[in-house]
């Protein structure tokens, strides 16, 4: 077992973990942060995307011990403390950018990273920026709209 | 799925890492960015007893100017290499290739040295590193040694790094003013390349003065297309002239046949991608 | 008592309400099955066969049992009859050959990935560790893998998937319009066309697909209560409860099934799975809660696959291109077992090959075949995409033969809008539609003529990038299903749906539905229906579903049925509430019930401003102080609706692709569709269903294929090799609707969940073929990989077979990885 100390969604946590424990398992099983989910075992799907020290990573592809000393933000830590949604969360709802919602935490976390990097992305840049996140429900159409909406470039959903 | 149990050590210096490697030897795996290793462990294709994490060795990170070459620390992430102004200025081909490498999350975590040491012939960094004439610096119990690019990749997932050595940096000769392009042929954006071609050229007027071409996934290792490079030198940067040189690219290659394409199809694609990459590198794409 | 309220400013039906579900999903407050943790819960790991077909000679669990924190290791023999069985609900013919399907077979495995032992441990990691220690000895048997060879094995002496059955053919199901009296003799039509008309004879491949829902399946079983509770990532909680009771002997009343948040299904979670049965048996045996969550690799390997047919097709027409007959001869690969719907999937397609066209003669036959591969069952569209693909590809071939535009050949043969209702050669009555209107609108959106001009220009110029335009004028049958029809097809259950409306004392409303959503937005759309009909605020309606303790009755969600069958049940339950409220209102308003009008949520006395809101009546009924004599103090109502007919959405889909003739790479350029799905409840949700459906259909055309090697190993066993498209591979779609209200339900709605998938596959392949037809190509096998397209261009073939190997990227070798 290894002792790790990190900050998750603004709270300091400290635990003894097996070295083999993945960050996503630590979040889900030890901290109860079940908003972050596991969709594959080859790091293709991106459903488990969180921010590690401010950049997006696939938390199934990071060991919990590697996150020792780091700051982690999950989908559960994105909204303000008073419940005000992050603009990207709001945009996904406004644009119907989700259906079953399983890929959504990863999509939203990756979108936040994408927009931080490029606040005014072209449609192509959005599509390439989300290539590490699979969705099986939306055909990506309204996800792209949601990212554009969050970036302030469109008027919401197309029905 | 969950990896089999292992012990973990995260040294903070190369010396400590080498000591750990010496101690655990065959039972150990080095983890750099872990973007290829962790899936392997999760699917239990491999189950080392020890995992040695290089992630806490700060000296292995960063890009610096080495005079006539750049020095890219092995633990520099793809993201950081791709955004580095020095890389953009002196080794544009690497910047271009990295935009096509995996996805944003993997680029945030995966490392330049880790990907090269993994030696997947379908990896996106081997071909540009070879094309640019890179030298690989490894450190072992007896000190450091330099491995020329031509000797680094040995076979599928196999390099010239010895079991007791660690890749510490890659030295990339400066190619100032060279145009560059990485043409990656895939069916789906998040796929490993079926074939990719890394090309960088130096123009004199409308003539290709020099060209360097590397091939991804055209054999059991990344390859350098010397015949194409020689044929391009001194030719005009026109479609016909470049196509003539590109036609040589598949000679002597031994690409795989798999569900994404037979070997002969890959050879054909390599010629098309070579032509396109060279023309794009010459600003004629 | 209040004065009449103003009616709601905006009707809920037709409004693009943002979804109620989303607040939880975008903040991570979710209840996926794998999130559930119970005190003392144990974890399962499956030991799976690496062989496609093998006899189990011994299983040694001793080392695994000694593993750290291992509770026990169990085999099929250990569980015995307690493990129940996996059922086939639809024996398509009386003499169907159906192999027994035990969740954990005891003597022989029939496909790679089948479970032979289960490890129970205190953590999932420890269960997996011990699973590696279970030693199973197998005697490998020859495996039936090739569909065509397997179909002939009983005659050729070939390999049998189940040697004791003596054949791989489970059923031959046939429909003939002359025999059924719904049309003429297809052989006569073919003979005539051969003699003096046009005969198009083709063989098309429907490749094997994997539904690949994003949430891997998971099951938690808690046996500690009076009822055994099962949480499962399933589309069919009610059917699962039935199957558990029917095969394990546990009374149905002792079983509670909950489908909490379910992350996609697309038919892939329309199954009673071995893993659910095993978890149920283990929990009962140990008396402890257990959980099993599959990995993605396990999911791709063992969750049922879809499609997988060979289609031999003969279309007869006159020289002018008027269709005269269609003969369909299918081979359908059911995999190792006959799944819950299983052999019914090709039969669901039987009625749709004739599509929107006026064929005078039609014959359909499917031969359902067992092989040693993962079992197949419903995948989005289930039988109808296969049928639509075949006919829409054939119509393009006919157009090419006649030398007219593909849209023109369709117009010559389709049912005109004034001909509805129309009884087809397959014996179905299409209730409504307007193919002319949808096509005109789609052409306009597409800029069809301009794109045709560009295509001609590129061809003339010999451009390396050629443009292709693809058409698909699809229809489908949805709203499964009239119970009588299902009965006539030998299906094991009905097709009704149940709904219940509960008026709470404070005026809010609980609605229970037997439909079980997994991403469709039922909570929103159903709230809109109830809000409109009952005149209560949208926010005051709560939709409850997916728990057999709350929704005791239902037939779940698949086959585009939730809205058209479940929605109609809802309407009827609401109407009963209103009728129960009427005498109360009359009593309290001191008026005659006949003088009351109900609108906007209130009863009003005709010709007065006296009225009473439904919520006020609910409160009064709760108090029950002053009700009409003899009246039961409850407005709650339920309804079970059995549809009398299917409904038939249709649409015109137009796709433009650019084909790089140097590489064979296909790039989507433009996609427009105009669908007629009747009355739309929520255009936002409908658009989402269409977009997602389109991409799944496009993915069949271009990218996805489940491939087995010659040993029966699935080589597309991870998302590295099973190619789901990403955002970077798809484009923005342009969609619109025309509206011919369905006449088979009171809302006028038609199903939409499967439309995009059914329509888009042939639109894309038609476009790809159209781009290179002038180069001598008339078919390209799906998926239209760059290599296939390139080979088709270069040798005129349909592109050849896929090489069955996958390159490793995550290697097993010692060196390298960092």
From TrEMBL, chain A:
The keyword Metal-binding applies. PANTHER family: OXIDOREDUCTASE WITH IRON-SULFUR SUBUNIT. It comes from Nocardioides caeni. Keywords: 2Fe-2S, Iron, Iron-sulfur, Metal-binding, Oxidoreductase. Pathway: Alkaloid degradation; nicotine degradation. InterPro entries: 2Fe-2S-bd, 2Fe-2S-bd_dom_sf, 2Fe-2S_ferredoxin-like_sf, 2Fe-2S_ferredoxin-type, Beta-grasp_dom_sf, Diverse_Oxidoreductases. The keyword Oxidoreductase applies. Residues 2-78 form the 2Fe-2S ferredoxin-type domain. Pfam families: Fer2 (PF00111), Fer2_2 (PF01799). GO terms for molecular function: 2 iron, 2 sulfur cluster binding; metal ion binding; oxidoreductase activity. This is (2Fe-2S)-binding protein.
UniProtKB/TrEMBL annotation, chain B:
It holds the Pfam family CO_deh_flav_C. Keywords: FAD, Flavoprotein, Oxidoreductase. GO terms for molecular function: FAD binding; oxidoreductase activity. SUPFAM superfamilies: CO dehydrogenase flavoprotein C-terminal domain-like, FAD-binding/transporter-associated domain-like. Residues 1-177 form the FAD-binding PCMH-type domain. This is Xanthine dehydrogenase family protein subunit M. It comes from Nocardioides caeni.
UniProtKB/TrEMBL annotation, chain C:
Gene3D superfamilies: Aldehyde oxidase/xanthine dehydrogenase, a/b hammerhead, Aldehyde oxidase/xanthine dehydrogenase, molybdopterin binding domain. InterPro entries: Ald_Oxase/Xan_DH_a/b, Ald_Oxase/Xan_DH_a/b_sf, Ald_Oxase/xanthine_DH-like, AldOxase/xan_DH_MoCoBD1, AldOxase/xan_DH_MoCoBD2, AldOxase/xan_DH_Mopterin-bd_sf. Residues 13-22 have a biased composition (Basic and acidic residues). Its cofactor is Mo-molybdopterin cytosine dinucleotide. Pfam families: Ald_Xan_dh_C, MoCoBD_1, MoCoBD_2. One of its GO terms (molecular function) is oxidoreductase activity. Residues 1-22, 796-818 are annotated as: Disordered. Residues 27-142 form the Aldehyde oxidase/xanthine dehydrogenase a/b hammerhead domain. Keywords: Molybdenum, Oxidoreductase. SMART domains: Ald_Xan_dh_C. This is Xanthine dehydrogenase family protein.
């Amino acid at each position: 077992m290894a002792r790790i100390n990190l900050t998750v969604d603004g709270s300091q946590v400290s635990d003894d973990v097996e070295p083999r424990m993945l960050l996503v398992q630590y979040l889900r099983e030890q901290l109860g942060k079940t908003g972050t989910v596991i969709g594959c075992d080859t790091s293709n799907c991106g459903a488990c995307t969180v921010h590690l020290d401010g950049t997006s990573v696939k938390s199934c592809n990071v060991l919990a011990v590697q996150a020792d000393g780091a700051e982690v933000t999950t989908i559960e830590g994105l909204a303000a403390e008073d419940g005000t949604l992050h603009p990207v969360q709001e945009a996904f709802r406004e644009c119907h950018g989700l259906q079953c919602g399983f890929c959504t935490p990863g999509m939203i976390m990756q979108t936040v990273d994408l927009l931080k990097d490029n606040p005014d992305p072209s449609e192509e840049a959005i599509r390439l920026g989300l290539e590490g996140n699979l969705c099986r429900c939306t055909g990506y159409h309204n996800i792209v709209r949601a990212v554009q909406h969050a970036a302030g470039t469109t008027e919401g959903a197309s029905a | 799925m969950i990896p089999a149990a292992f012990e973990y050590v995260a040294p903070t210096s190369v010396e400590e890492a080498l000591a750990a490697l010496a101690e655990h030897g065959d039972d150990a795996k080095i983890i750099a960015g872990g973007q290829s290793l962790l899936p392997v462990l999760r699917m239990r294709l491999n189950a080392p007893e020890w995992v040695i994490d290089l992630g806490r060795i700060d000296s292995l990170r960063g890009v610096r100017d080495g005079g006539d070459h750049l020095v890219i620390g092995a633990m520099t992430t793809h993201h950081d290499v791709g955004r580095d102004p020095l890389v953009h200025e002196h080794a544009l081909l690497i910047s271009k290739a990295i935009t096509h490498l995996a996805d944003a999350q993997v680029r945030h975590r995966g490392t330049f040295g880790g990907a090269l040491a993994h030696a997947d012939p379908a990896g996106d960094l081997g071909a540009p590193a070879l094309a640019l004439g890179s030298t690989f610096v490894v450190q072992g119990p007896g000190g450091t040694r330099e491995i020329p690019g031509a000797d680094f990749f040995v076979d599928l997932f196999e390099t010239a790094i010895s079991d007791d050595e660690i890749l510490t940096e890659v030295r990339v000769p400066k190619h100032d003013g060279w145009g560059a392009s990485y043409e990656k042929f895939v069916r789906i954006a998040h796929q490993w390349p079926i074939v990719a071609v890394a090309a960088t050229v130096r123009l004199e007027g409308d003539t290709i003065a020099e060209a360097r071409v590397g091939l991804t996934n055209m054999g059991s290792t990344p390859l350098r297309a010397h015949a194409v490079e020689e044929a391009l030198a001194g030719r005009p940067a026109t479609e016909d002239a470049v196509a003539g040189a590109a036609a040589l690219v598949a000679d002597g290659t031994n690409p795989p046949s798999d569900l994404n394409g037979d070997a002969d199809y890959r050879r054909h694609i390599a010629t098309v991608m070579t032509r396109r990459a060279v023309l794009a590198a010459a600003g004629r794409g | 008592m209040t004065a009449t309220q103003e009616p709601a400013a905006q009707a809920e039906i037709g409004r693009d309400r943002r979804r109620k579900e989303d607040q939880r999903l975008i903040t991570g407050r979710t209840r996926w099955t794998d999130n559930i943790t119970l005190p003392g819960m144990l974890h399962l790991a499956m030991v799976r066969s690496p062989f496609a077909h093998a006899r189990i000679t011994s299983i040694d669990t001793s080392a695994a049992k000694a593993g750290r924190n291992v509770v026990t290791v169990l085999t099929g023999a250990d569980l015995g009859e307690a493990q129940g069985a996996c059922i086939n609900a639809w024996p398509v013919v009386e003499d169907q050959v159906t192999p027994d399907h035990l969740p954990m077979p005891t003597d022989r495995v029939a496909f790679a990935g089948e479970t032979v032992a289960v490890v129970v441990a205190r953590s999932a990691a420890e269960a997996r560790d011990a699973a590696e220690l279970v030693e199973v000895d197998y005697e490998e048997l020859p495996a039936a893998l090739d569909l065509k060879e397997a179909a002939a094995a009983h005659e050729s002496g070939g390999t049998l998937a189940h040697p004791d059955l003596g054949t791989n053919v489970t059923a031959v199901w046939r429909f003939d319009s002359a025999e059924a009296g719904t049309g003429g003799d297809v052989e006569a039509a073919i003979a005539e066309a051969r003699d003096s008309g046009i005969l198009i004879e083709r063989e098309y491949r429907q490749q094997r697909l994997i539904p690949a829902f994003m949430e891997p399946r998971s099951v938690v079983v808690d046996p500690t209560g009076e009822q055994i509770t099962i949480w499962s990532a399933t589309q069919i909680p009610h059917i699962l409860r039935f199957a558990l009771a029917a095969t394990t002997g546990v009374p149905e009343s002792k079983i509670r099934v909950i489908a909490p948040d379910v992350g996609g299904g697309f038919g892939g979670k329309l199954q009673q799975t071995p893993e659910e049965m095993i978890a149920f048996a283990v929990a009962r045996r140990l008396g402890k809660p257990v959980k099993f969550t599959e990995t993605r690799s396990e999911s791709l390997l063992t969750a049922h696959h879809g499609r997988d047919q060979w289609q031999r097709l003969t279309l007869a027409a006159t020289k002018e291109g008027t269709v005269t007959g269609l003969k369909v001869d299918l081979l359908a690969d059911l995999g190792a077992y006959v799944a819950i719907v299983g052999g019914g999937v090709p039969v669901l397609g039987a009625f749709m090959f004739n599509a929107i066209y006026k064929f005078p003669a039609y014959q359909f036959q499917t031969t359902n075949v067992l092989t040693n591969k993962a079992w197949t069952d419903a995948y989005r569209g289930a039988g109808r995409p296969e049928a639509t693909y075949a006919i829409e590809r054939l119509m393009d071939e006919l157009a090419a033969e006649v030398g007219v535009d593909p849209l023109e050949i369709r117009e010559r043969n389709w049912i005109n809008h004034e001909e509805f209702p129309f009884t087809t050669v397959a014996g179905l009555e299409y209730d409504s539609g307007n193919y002319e209107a949808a096509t005109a609108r789609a052409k306009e959106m597409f800029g069809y003529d301009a794109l045709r001009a560009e295509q001609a220009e590129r061809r003339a110029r010999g451009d390396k990038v050629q443009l292709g335009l693809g058409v698909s004028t699809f229809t489908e049958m949805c709203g499964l299903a009239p119970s009588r029809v299902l009965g006539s097809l030998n299906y094991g259950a009905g097709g009704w749906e149940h709904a219940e409306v509960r008026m709470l004392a404070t005026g809010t409303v609980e609605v229970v539905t037997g439909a079980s959503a997994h991403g469709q937005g039922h909570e929103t759309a159903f709230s809109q229906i109830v809000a409109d009909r009952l005149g209560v605020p949208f926010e005051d309606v709560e939709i409850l579903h997916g728990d057999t303790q709350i929704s005791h009755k239902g037939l779940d969600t698949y086959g585009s049925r939730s809205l058209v069958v479940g929605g109609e049940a809802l309407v009827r339950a609401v109407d009963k509430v209103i009728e129960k409220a009427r005498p109360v209102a009359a009593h309290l308003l001191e008026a005659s019930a006949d003088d009351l009008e109900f609108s906007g949520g209130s009863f009003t006395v005709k010709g007065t401003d006296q009225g009473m809101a439904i919520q006020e009546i609910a409160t009064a009924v709760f108090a029950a102080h002053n009700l009409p004599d003899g009246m039961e103090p409850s407005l709650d109502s339920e309804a079970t609706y059995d549809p009398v007919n299917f409904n038939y959405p249709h649409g015109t889909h137009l796709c433009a692709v650019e084909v790089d003739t140097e590489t064979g790479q296909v790039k989507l350029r433009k996609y427009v569709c105009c669908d007629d799905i009747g009355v739309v409840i929520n255009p936002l949700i409908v658009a989402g269903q269409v977009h997602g459906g389109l991409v799944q259909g496009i993915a069949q055309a271009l990218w996805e294929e489940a491939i087995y090697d010659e040993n029966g190993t699935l080589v597309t066993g991870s998302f590295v090799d099973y190619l789901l498209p990403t955002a970077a591979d798809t484009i923005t779609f342009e969609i619109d609707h025309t509206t011919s209200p369905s006449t088979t339900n009171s809302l006028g709605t038609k199903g939409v969940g499967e439309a995009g998938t059914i329509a888009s596959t042939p639109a894309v392949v038609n476009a790809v073929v159209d781009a290179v037809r002038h180069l001598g190509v008339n078919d390209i096998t799906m998926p239209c990989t760059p290599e296939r397209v390139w080979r088709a261009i270069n040798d005129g073939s349909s592109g050849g077979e896929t090489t069955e190997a996958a390159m490793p990227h995550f290697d097993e070798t010692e060196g390298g990885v960092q």
